[in-house]
Write a structure and sequence with these properties.
The protein is built from six helices and 18 strands. Strand 7 (159-164) and strand 8 form a beta hairpin. With 305 residues, it is α+β, with helices and mostly antiparallel strands. The two termini are 27 Å apart. The chain folds into two domains: 2-215 and 276-302, Creatine Amidinohydrolase (Alpha-Beta Complex), CATH 3.90.230.10; 220-274, Winged helix-like DNA-binding domain superfamily/Winged helix DNA-binding domain (Arc Repressor Mutant, subunit A, Orthogonal Bundle). The protein has helices spanning 2-27, 36-49, 113-129, 136-149, 232-241, 259-268; strands at 53-54, 59-62, 65-67, 84-93, 96-105, 153-154, 159-164, 167-175, 192-195, 198-200, 208-210, 220-223, 249-250, 272-275, 278-280, 286-288, 291-296, 299-302. 47% of the residues are buried. It binds manganese (II) ion (MN) (2 copies). Residues 88, 99, 101, 196, 290 line the site of one manganese (II) ion.
Length: 305
Amino acid sequence: MVEEVELVLDKYRSAGRILAEVREEAVGLVKEGNLLLEVAEFVENRVREKGGEPAFPCNISRNEEAAHATPSGDDKTVFGNADLVKLDLGVHVDGFIADSAVTVDLSGGGENEGLVRAAEAALNEALKIIRDGVSTVEISEIIENTVRERGYKPIVNLTGHGLARYNSHAPPTIPNVKYEHGGGAVLREYDIVAIEPFATDARGAGKVVEGGGGRGSAEIFSLLRPRPVRVREAKRLLEAVKKYRGLPFAKRWLPRERLDLALRTLKNAGMLREYPVLREEEKGLVSQAEHTVIVRWDGCEVTTK
Ligand code: MN
Ligand code: MN
């Protein structure tokens, strides 16, 4: 039993190590004029080279975008000279997931440094109190207070979360504000959780809504429950995406032939979840910091450091 637990923990650690290495390399590529697509593909290929698999498409969200942005297959977008870039990476080893994000500020004068630091500080303060027996309410409270003390707003409808095998959003939900969330949950030793504070500036509403950056439809999907389908294109697509075992995948990972028809058919049959880009409601700038941890009796082990 103990050996089995250690075997699983080692897979979480391997995923975290791969993620941390690739994250560092990827940050170096986030530069004015570089293609977003180039960075996303670099991340996903590098993860595979190192023996992992992407747990979800490389998310590159800029400025008021908070999450779920990933370039399309023919995306020509490049980083701008003042972009505030959230790079959110997922790696799995045999289904055991690491999830981590950093914010890269491309504005030369460091004018967004306070906002970036607010999310990082909130993450660090949260990590300090995580141990067996801690309540998610305490974590939410320390995140909210740390962000507000620095003069920024936490984003109320984006949350940290548990991780489980082939499940990138398992219970419990760990909000970034201490509103009444049904008393919360108590973390126990060997729970795996991702903590991810998001902060926005004075202009922001502190809330995200769907529909980012003037882009079209979603680029990220996941398979809910496979059922028999008749349309040939849909059948082929269904077979192609089963291998992700319910984890999110990018449209650009799929065979292009009659792809929109196939996606629409599966979506209409209730088999696909779509992840539209989430952006700050009032277009406030958004920063994010995220690590994955293993809860221990006396603290926590960060797998993605
Ligand atoms: Mn993430
Ligand atoms: Mn996450």
